[in-house]
Amino acid sequence: MLKNKEIKMKEEIVIAGFGGQGVLSMGKILAYAALMNDLEVTWMPSYGPEQRGGTANVTVILSDEAISSPIVDSYDTAVILNQQSLDKFESHINPGGTLIYDPYGIHRKPTRTDIKIVAVNAMDATIELGNAKGYNMILLGALLKLKRVVSLDDVLRGLKKALPERHHHLIPANEAAILKGMSLV
Amino acid sequence: MELNQIINPANKVYSRPALLSENTMHYCPGCSHGVVHKIIAELIDEMGQQENTIGVAPVGCAVFAYNYIDVDWVEAAHGRAPALATAVKRLNPEKLVFTYQGDGDISAIGTAETIHAANRGENIAIIFINNGIYGMTGGQMAPTTLEGQKTATTPYGRRVDLNGYPLAISTLLAQLDGTCYVTRQAVHTAAAARKAKSAIKKAFQNALAGRGTSVVEIVGTCSSGWKLSPRASNAWMEENMFEKYPLGDLKNADVEK
Amino acid sequence: MNEDIRLMKGNEAIAHAAIRYGVDGYFGYPITPQSEILETLEALMPWETTGMVVLQAESETASINMVYGGAATGKAVMTSSSSPGVSLMQEGISYLAASELPALIVNVMRGGPGLGTIHPSQSDYFQTTKGGGHGDYRLIVLAPSSVQEMADFVSLGFDLAFKYRNPAMILADGVIGQMMEKVVLPEQRPRRTAEEIRKQCPWALTGKTPDRKRNVVTSLELDSAIMEKNNERFQRTYKEIEANEVRYQEYQTEDADYLIVAFGSMARICLKAVEEARKVGVKIGLLRPITLWPFPYEAINNIAKGMKGILVAELNAGQMIEDVRLAVHDNVPVEHFGRMGGIVPNPTEILMSFTNKFGVKF
User: Fold this and answer.
1) What is the ipTM metric for this complex?
2) Which residues in chain C are closer than 8 Å to B77, comparing Cβ atoms?
3) Assigned fold of C249-358
4) pTM of the model as a whole
5) What is the third-level CATH fold of B26-256?
6) Could you say which DSSP state residue B105 is in?
């Protein structure tokens, strides 16, 4: 679904989990990748004390047309990192949509049958990689492989734009985590 | 001798300071504000700063200070003069910026703005008239009202158990790292007025040179509020006010360094 | 990709736009959800480039009075806060209006009353458009509904404020402040020189020179006859602003049977509702007031003529609806949809409201 002038595209994505899991920054990187691909984009976070340990979520909308509402009530794709978020968002995924989740800590598994459900063992993969900060990038890799809303190249260019120069040395580690995530699905 | 022989430029020994306007002052007879206004007008003129000065007027008796001294002025909301002066000076760093405030303005409603401007070391001069009472509104208690002093809101005298203690704000300001010069003066005698003038001059020089915040407290009289004649007010001030608010430098960074 | 296009939060866009407009000073105090404005300015260090002064004040009371002092010297100065902090500023805003000083105030609204919540709200509409401080005064009120408008309205707000010598407010909310979108920032403009200020603002405190009388910026006038004259002058300015500066945007109103009137983030949500309604053949249009004062009374009255109903959608208990009702003189049924306390509705709730209020079937 890479941008193609012939095909209209719009993808409404929610990413939700605990504060500290990199939910907002994963959304941000996705948004920057969309920027690099000349798409319209909105990034709307939950904000406030959630950032310090509570639940956090971000809605990212990518489109090749102007985006009306940055807030929607149903999503094409949900990336879910904890039980509360699964409980909250499973019923808000459009029929035919995609649910990506990390089964780590999930005791009540998703039950929808009209959506594509993909479990990504991101926590295990993070430990395997030995890069605790790569967790959200592994999930982003899985998302990119499944939805192809933006390309890996867009993401890497987006990272370059989003990160201050002094953090550019972290980009290869991020790339490795994204590739790892891609290999999991 | 004929009158016109006396009124002769050759005989002139004193004149109205060039920057003191001819507007009739609204201050009561015996009030200290008039003397301090005159000193400020003289100094700005002597220092050649008329075109370079911005005054910040308070709410209180000196609310109309801008009617009397011929420089550009902004009239602040009650207590906010140091906040205004902060911005005026930061945005116009070459200007001589001073506030003129009473005891209610500086140490009741505007305590936060005063302390923080002084703590940031804003390069302004704060001229503070302490007469221990709210003159403008009819003689109510000020933070600086003395223990036992009768005012419209302490008709039986200030009681510390009800109203707290007199607040020596200058002593407090002298503790802050941002102040470079804090002094307490009076203008009830010619000698005192001369000393007050050199203190204000020093404060203006500090402000221009960017040395930090200067505070010149003038312990003054309020004959109307105190319900005493001007002469009795001076005596009462010397006897009572100077005990709680002793005159002299509280901080002088020049000397200390 | 156009290198000039950036991705940033509405709050960040305000900070960048302020530097590029050539603002002389920003004075503010942290409060969620707008602290990124001060944080971004401190990080960008504009005092090293344009010479802009940035100062974290000790309170919102101090901030607005710093703005008052700076504005009195003819400088382009601004502050920002969120609802509880803006309440604290009302004294200073009244003084700014009374002293006919240009300044820009940004309110990124959160839910109240009281300390309330940190989440988005539009419940300061009355405070902002009807005068939150004392006295007969008006603020020019701009309501951005995108990050691009957050950037654009800094220039617009200052231009209007200086044109009319009246404070202007950008009335945003937590959604617009916190969301990231693409934005193209304005070109860097130089700050005005002292000479330009002397010329453009002859009333400003620039130092008394022999060629003019002393300038005094004051809101005090004890002579009631003069004070009434001052008020009449303010009112003439307000009439002029009402005549010249009404701004609004229409979406698909030409063939609409129903109209939504919404501003700021709610207008975005309602636009999606309009899109969804039209997919199933229900013709709804949207009018988005951009200036909340002056309010587009006439435009709403004209556009709504012959329509079956108007839904006023707001993040409050019903504030702008009073102006919409004034606009249409009871000629069209006007209903309200509102969420409060920081709850942001989704487009489906707007459509459900059409069913509940007007019996529209989707």
Assistant:
1) 0.93
2) 65, 68, 91-92, 95
3) Rossmann fold (3.40.50)
4) 0.94
5) Rossmann fold (3.40.50)
6) I
